[in-house]
Write a structure and sequence with these properties.
336 residues; alpha/beta; 10-stranded mixed sheet; 14 strands; 35% helix; binds threonylcarbamoyladenylate; binds magnesium ion
Length: 336
């Protein structure tokens, strides 16, 4: 079903409020709207409307076993979605919301099964982006929203990325500029004791540990992976093969390219060892700071898709807690 996809700007107070009203009207009607959040853009539907949420799965080509995060704009709304609000959730809320943290809790009966992929738990997040917040408030109901990309592809961090994937499939995209965090939220399962990180994000374990005291081994264990169905699939992938490698000089880089056997268009994403060679199709210079790197990464991967490169070589990242989620996304992008 082809439809016209409208992108609305929000950079003046008048445009902002008109765009928010328009999105709320579409969502109240059971339609879908792509909305900016501080992590990545989301494809939103009324979380209490099972038919609207079913459309999300259709539009994205998302497997039915993968649950969707529910976005709220205040504490009362968060509590309405869950069976019970534990004291730990309270502390995490005070420390990290609004922000890039999703809490997995036992779901309330009112949350339709399709949102949770039939499971007993629901992921809840209170995003900090003013447009997302304004739309949720205007609606008065929470919004189920996965990243606004086709399933398994790179998440969108601006309106143009969303348009590229979902043009003709959804009526509306709100343009809220570049997402500030740039990679998806940390998903923390607080149904068990101690809690478990199901997906690392820019709120990292050391920050969480200050509040939780301890954490179970995370998504890398078999049980962790089963608890977060989205992490089983190949995910967050650009079209071209992606390799993470270390090189100190161009000679080493050249050997790496040769070894990869790719004669075509090569993209290099570097942050310290920047090659000057002219036969590399695209050299992206990424920041050396983890937050800035995360903010920039997906736009670079989208750029690689857009110019149909044959191979993406990413310079090996530093170690350390603040880089962990970026390591995770690159590992997934590299797995084919
Ligand atoms: O930053 C984000 O989280 C973005 C923005 C739009 O909020 N959303 C996002 O959604 O990344 P999505 O659907 O692309 O990824 C959600 C992840 C998936 O890996 C999914 O399996 C997991 O969260 N998830 C959602 N609900 C869950 C639940 N009840 N239990 C375990 N994992 C859950
Ligand atoms: Mg996603």
């Amino acid at each position: 079903m082809e439809m016209e996809t409208v992108i609305l700007s929000t950079h003046t107070p008048e445009l902002f409020s008109a765009a928010v009203q328009r999105a709320a009207a579409v969502l109240r009607d059971g339609g879908l709207a792509a909305l900016p959040t501080e992590t990545v853009y989301g494809l939103a539907a009324n979380a209490f409307n099972a038919r609207a949420v079913a459309r999300i799965f259709e539009v994205k080509g998302r497997p039915a076993h993968n649950p969707i995060i529910v976005h709220v704009a205040d504490s009362a709304m968060a509590r309405r979605c869950v069976e019970h609000w534990p004291a730990l959730a309270d502390r995490l809320e005070k420390a990290f919301w609004p922000g890039p943290l999703t809490l997995v809790l036992r779901k309330a009966d009112g949350v339709p099964d399709i949102v949770t992929a039939g499971g007993p738990t629901v992921g809840i997040r209170w995003p900090s982006h003013p447009i997302m917040q304004a739309v949720i408030r205007a609606c008065g109901f929470p919004l189920a929203a996965p990243s606004a990309n086709l399933s398994n592809q790179v998440s969108p961090t601006n309106a143009a990325h969303v348009y590229k994937h979902l043009k003709g499939r959804i009526p509306l995209i709100l343009d809220g500029g570049q997402s500030n965090v740039g990679i998806e939220s940390t998903v923390l399962d607080v149904t068990g004791n101690p809690p478990r990180v199901l997906r690392p994000g820019m709120i990292h374990s050391s920050a969480l540990l200050a509040l939780t005291g301890s954490l179970q081994a995370g998504a890398e264990t078999e049980e962790g992976a089963l608890k977060s169905p989205g992490m089983l699939a190949k995910h967050y992938s650009p079209r071209a093969p992606l390799l993470v490698r270390k090189w100190n000089d161009e000679e080493t880089l050249r050997q790496l390219i040769q070894k990869a056997g790719s004669p075509g268009k090569i993209a290099v994403l570097a942050h310290t060892a920047i090659p000057g060679a002219t036969d590399i199709f695209r050299v992206a210079v990424l920041p050396r700071d983890a937050r800035a790197y995360a903010r920039a990464l997906y736009a670079e991967l989208h750029q690689c898709d857009d110019s149909a490169v044959d191979l993406i070589l990413v310079e090996e990242l530093p170690e350390g807690a603040e880089w962990k989620a970026i390591h995770d996304r690159l590992r997934r992008a590299a797995s084919k």
